[in-house]
Amino acid sequence: MAEAFYRRKLVEYIKRNLKKGYPIETLKIALINQNYSRPTIEEAIIEATKELAIEAPVLKEKPKIEHQIIFDESSIEKKSFFKKLFSFFKKN
Q: Which of 20, 23, 33, 73: CA 20 to 30 A from 53?
């Protein structure tokens, strides 16, 4: 019974810190340094990610992507390499 209580607290700790933006690897290292066993940590991480996946909102519709053309490429004059080179030397 006490083991289930500690595992539940561990799962809540992991969920809370994942929501804050901490990476899983950082949480693993911190928990290992606090003398939690690796299998216990792995089980708690699996359980926490499952619970977070259930809590995540489901997108019902695809987001609309809007775009706007900033400039028209046909209005840009494209010069060959040699024309650019000769115009550079003509300026100087």
A: 33
